[in-house]
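Model it.
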Amino acid sequence: MPDTRAGLPAIWTDSLGRASIRSLQVLAVAALAWAVLWTLTRVPLVIIPATIAVILAAAIAPLVRWLAGHGFPRALAVAASFLAIVAVFGGVVTGIVFLVRSQWKELSQKAVAGVDQLHTFLNTGPIPVSDEQINTTRESVQKFFTSSSFGSEALTGVRTVGEILVAMILMAVTLFFLLKDGSKIRDFLIGFLPAAHRATAHLAADRSAVVLGGYVRGTALVAASNGLIVGVALAILGVPLALPLGVFVFIGGFIPIVGSTAAGTLAVAVALISNGPVSALIVLAVVVGVNQLEHHFLQPVLMGKVLSIHGLAILLALAAGTMLAGVIGALLAVPITAVGWTIIKTVTGREPAPGAADAEAS
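Modeled.
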């Protein structure tokens, strides 16, 4: 092997000099990574819908292949799969809106009695709270809602709703084209790589699709179990909006560790306002039990073969994703981390990613 240090000054050939060169290389790579991340965070209305579309396409692709394998033309299989997803999503949203509207009056009536029960509980509970403290808190809340800052935040909320609608349309269009021409798009992008690396890139893409699809389907099953259990408990207790709250728990389940807890907290709050402290404590116990079932049984059984990532890595990925892109960042952090780890294992020749052998066989 030729001596690559030939012709370099002596200051760069000793151990400290080599460490300095390596440090400069690391800093250059870090700067490039930061520049890429900064650029991506400048166009969230493009990057986030496209990323979600890629994840959904990986999960829906097996359905398209199944329909195509049973005699459906490729275009019809894509259209049927896409319309099925849109119909399910639209049906869920429409159902939630109608249920909230139909049960809002009942919730408002129960809220009056619930607030009285809560007031009595706060006055006579283990940690008594005086009426003066309660009134001070209430006045602070009222002051916020009548302040100019709340009005400006409301306008910001209206703008955010518009941005969400635009992002959903872009995501739907991107998802359709990924399902229809996903392999062509992948081949086009991989074509920019040197010929010697294209086979590895194809393998990494196939394995990443397996990991993404397995992650989405496994998470959906876990989240559905959580939503079903909490929704049934709320219905048995007679808490208003039981079905919409169960759906919110299902949606929250797609954000690992914290999503189900946050959605469960909303269910506890509604139970506290409408049915009183006893029902709220029962719902809290159900939410805690569901979280324990998810972490110790459902996640290992349904997703243990898909994700081989340590819990600490998931927590760090969630923290980084939340700092970069808020709730959407937390939603996308784990699948992106899983794909990144799969690509690293493929490029470095480590143990094949979970499910890769099945993908290669198919």
